[in-house]
Design goal:
Low-confidence stretches of chain B: none
CATH superfamily of chain A: Chloramphenicol acetyltransferase-like domain
Radius of gyration of chain A: 17 Å
Mean pLDDT of chain B: 94
Distance between the termini of chain B: 5 Å
CATH topology of chain B: Non-ribosomal Peptide Synthetase Peptidyl Carrier Protein, Chain A
CATH architecture of chain B: Orthogonal Bundle
Structural class of chain A: alpha+beta
Number of domains of chain B: 1
CATH class of chain A: Alpha Beta
Number of domains of chain A: 1
Shape of chain A: globular
Order of helices and strands of chain B: HHHH
Distance between the termini of chain A: 35 Å
Order of helices and strands of chain A: HEHHEEEEEEHEEEEH
Strand content of chain A: 25-35%
Radius of gyration of chain B: 11 Å
CATH topology of chain A: Chloramphenicol Acetyltransferase
CATH superfamily of chain B: ACP-like
Largest sheet of chain B: none
Mean pLDDT of chain A: 94
Strand content of chain B: under 5%
CATH architecture of chain A: 2-Layer Sandwich
Number of strands of chain B: 0
Structural class of chain B: mainly alpha
Low-confidence stretches of chain A: none
Shape of chain B: globular
Helix content of chain B: 55-70%
Oligomer: heterodimer
Helix content of chain A: 25-40%
Chain lengths: ~220, ~80
């Protein structure tokens, strides 16, 4: 598996002119909403922060379709739907990126169920071949206690990858006052052949808006 | 439940979620999520399995009690 990853990533770095835009976002509203939502639910129905990041990615991909698709034969092919790739570390090493097909219409509860199923099978190496291919955009996260930011490498032929950092308490200015908030840094890697910084900025703006309004997710 | 039974319940759940890890080999004071390589989906499944085993719903506010094997065993013994 390591050799396959090595080939793909080497190809990505050689062929794709990556650029990165990042934004650190206030997670206060999202985590408060999550706590309230989960309070009276049994564990298997609870949501985790990752699913909010997935939903925010889907909404941003729908709104800014230039980052949702593939680079094929020297041209960008915008995908007609969001097939959401999720990078999962397998037990015993390695990385797989199965996709949740047509994730555009899935609200957070449905997305959570799909994520839990996919991750638990991916971790144990129980994925079907068909699930491993075809994502139109991928999300990679190293966990809530992970490092501050993740500058990822795009999975070819996709044209963007959303790197989600750990959840970190940081000093935060609100209305001219200093406070402490849980935050996350989103680092969007994009293919400069297929998009430019303005497009990537628009994507992050939609992502941030989604996290500020978790009740709409 | 007593401490031995609580440890058994915890080790059973860990055995299913992290089959390549021997729970007996984990430092009982180490951060369990890291030591057993549990991501957030795994951890939620651990909470679900432990809740079913003790017949009491483990709430999010209780998660810090599951930080280490020692704290989790004490928590399960007290609640279960």
């Amino acid at each position: 598996m390591r050799a396959a990853i090595a080939n793909l990533m080497a190809r990505s770095n050689a062929e794709i002119p990556h650029y990165y835009v990042t934004q650190t976002m206030d997670l206060g509203p999202a985590l408060a909403w999550l706590r309230a939502h989960n309070a009276d639910l049994p564990a298997r129905q609870r949501l985790i922060p990752s699913v909010l990041f997935l939903r925010a990615t889907v909404l941003a991909a729908l709104e800014v379709p230039d980052l949702n698709g593939h680079w094929v034969d020297g041209a960008r092919r915008t995908a007609q739907r969001v097939d959401l790739g999720v990078a999962v570390a397998t037990r015993g090493g390695g990385l797989v990126t199965p996709a949740i097909p047509d994730a555009g219409g899935l609200k957070v509860d449905d997305l959570m169920a799909r994520l839990a199923d996919l991750v638990s099978r991916a971790r144990r190496g129980n994925l079907k071949q068909a699930e491993m291919a075809g994502a139109s955009i991928t999300v990679s996260a190293l966990g809530e206690n992970g490092p501050d930011a993740l500058y990822g490498v795009i999975f070819p032929p996709q044209v963007a990858l959303v790197g989600v950092g750990g959840i970190v308490e940081r000093p935060w200015a609100v209305d001219g006052m200093l406070t402490v908030r849980p935050t996350v840094t989103i680092a969007l890697a994009a293919d400069h052949r297929a998009s430019d910084g303005r497009t990537a900025s628009a994507f992050l703006a939609v992502f941030a808006h989604a996290l500020e309004h978790p009740e709409e997710l | 439940m007593n401490t031995d039974r609580a440890r058994e319940v915890l080790f059973d759940a860990l055995g299913q979620l992290a089959p390549e890890v021997d729970p007996a080999e984990i430092d009982p004071t180490a951060v369990l999520r890291d030591a057993a390589d549990l991501d957030s989906v795994d951890f939620l499944e651990l909470v679900a399995q432990l809740s079913e085993a003790i017949g009491v719903d483990i709430r999010e506010d209780d998660y810090p009690q599951l930080d280490t094997i020692d704290s989790a065993v004490a928590f399960l013994a007290a609640r279960g």
